[in-house]
Amino acid sequence: MNRKNAIFIAATGQNVGKTTVCLGILAGLQKRFSSVGFIKPVGQQHVRTTEGVDADKDVVLFKEHFHLQTSYQTMSPVLCPTGFTRDFLDNKVDEKGLFKKITSSFDSIAKEHPYVLVEGTGHVGVGSIFNVNNAQVAQALQMDVVLIATGGLGSAIDELALNIELCKKYGVTVRGVIVNRVLNDKRSMIEEYFPKALKRWDIPLLGLIPYLPYLSIPMMKDFEGLLKAPLISGERYRLRHFTKIRLVASSLDSYMKEIAPNELIITPACREDIILATLNNEHLETGMILTGQIAPRPELIERIKKTNIPILYAPFCSFDMMKMISTFSAKIQKDDLPKIKQAIDLVEQHLDFQRLCGL
Q1: Alpha carbon of 84 to those of 72, 136, 138, 286: distances in Å?
Q2: Going from the N-terminus, what domains does the chain have, and what CATH number goes with each?
Q3: Torsion of CA 319, 325, 327, 328, to 10 degrees
Q4: Fewest Cβ atoms nearer than 10 Å: which of 51, 82, 85, 111?
């Protein structure tokens, strides 16, 4: 029998905005229940917390933003560090022990809260290599699953078909589907045809979340992590977002004619003319990533340190840098409060909480 006081959220693939949607779901649930618990049974990306313990990064985000009282260890019972899958295949990991950790953690949270939000890891099949995929976890917890798909119609249904079949294999009920990142010009079409496509499985559409570009815009702190390069300057502005990213390899005159506010400028560290011109326009709230195998001269670094512009140097060529950034998907971080608020407001406005909760 499926639990009525909890819901398991999974996605149909990577980078569909599951964590963003879960932020809005938890905020909405808190308005409908006296308290709401949160757990991410299996975590792939973990961080060291201020308490000195390792926890999934989403657990840290939810615990700190929503001021949840449950311990990190309870909300993040199973972590998969580098080498975990090989250890499992070498019989160094106890499969039954993993499920025991998950079920005991969930039961502990469920006793303290009238409703529990469970966030899965990626698509339904993630974790299959060590027999703890999302469908298996939902089965062990006797829970319904809500699937988050993204974007359009055909490809979204194709991805849903795979995930729904795996849920069926383990006897897990899919309570509904949420479509995230819906473009405005496709909204009416998706609103009409998506429910028709879902009829084959008798699964309802729970919401269409509009695409908001701001939620995908990286901040300077994201680039620090991506490039593993600390800021040279502008530490107080590492949370700055940029509306445009521009590679500058042209003449100084051309650059100055096109310089605009809130741009992230990527340019070789040897282009001191471009760098100094940007430093002289600090009011435009820009940022800079300096590239190339040769680092900025010490004298230039001292000049950069006097500015409030967030600037970092990474020893990549400009082409590789642009390739890395263009394929980078920014995740919401716990200190990015404006983005968290936008995500919560957006999801709450476009979700059917009655159906989501099975009421």
Answers
A1: 20, 18, 21, 41
A2: 6-216+334-356 (3.40.50.300), 220-326 (3.40.1390.20)
A3: 160
A4: 82
User: What token pair was written down for 29?
Assistant: 């649930």
Determine if residue 52 is left, alpha or beta; phi over 0 gives left, psi from -120 to 50 gives alpha, anything else beta: left
CA distances from 322 to 218, 227, 247, 318 (A): 14, 12, 8, 6
Q: What is the pLDDT of residue 359?
A: 64
CA distance 251 to 232: 25
Backbone angles phi, psi at 6, to 5 degrees: -160, 155
Report the distance separating Cα 265 and Cα 7, nearest Å: 43
Q: What pLDDT does 30 receive? A: 96
Query: Average pLDDT, stretch 248-266?
Result: 91
What the block records as the tokens of 86 is 């090989």
Question: Which residue in 65, 208, 64, 43 sits closest to 118, CA to CA?
Answer: 43
For residue 212, what are the contacts with CB-CB under 8 A and spacing of at least 6? 342, 346
Yes or no: say if 70 and 112 are a contact pair by the CB < 8 Å rule: yes
Give the lowest-confidence range in 3-7, 57-61, 135-139, 175-179: 3-7
For 277, the token pair is: 């011109």
pLDDT one-digit tens code per residue, 137-175:
999 999 999 999 997 899 999 999 999 999 999 999 999
Residue 280 DSSP one-character state: T
